[in-house]
Amino acid sequence: MKKVIMIVIVILNFILQTSLYHFIGCFGIIPNxxxxxxxxxxxxxxxxxxxxLGIITGLLxxxxxxxxxxxxxxxxxxxxxxxxxxxxxxxxxxxxxxxWITLISAVVWHLLMYIILFFLGxxxxxxxxxxxxxxFEIIVDAALAAALSKFMLYLFNKFNIKLLSRQ
Length: 167
Hints:
Layout lengths: L1 H18 L13 H12 L2 H18 L6 H15 L9 H26 L6 H32 L9
Helix pairs in contact: 1-2, 1-3, 2-3, 2-4, 2-5, 2-6, 3-4, 4-5, 5-6
């Protein structure tokens, strides 16, 4: 039941990410809530669930966004599986853990996206024009993940679904 709810949340977020979040972005910064959700769910579950949610999120993005299929799937899969591997070593009661892990994941995500698109010969926006926006977007994503971690824990507890395996 927990995984079904996670999948529904990821799909609903994708619909909002591709339609509504563009209108509420501030200073040209649109937070990557999908990345924050994958990190939060991977930390609250395991590497298999994180990888599975990463694949679903990536497939949704690949279908909608880009000419080359598989880039988003690969990146979200890597983030979900690697973050899921370290979930037992992370203090999940501390929101700063989610902040720092999402910050690192977002930096790696953007760096890998740039490298992949560079080697495919595709343009990924001028790096000098978007460096400032990427830095702010990464910080917003990390802060959002810290808030989402507490909200998801509250939401799952409200419906008596164990999000943490220790509960």
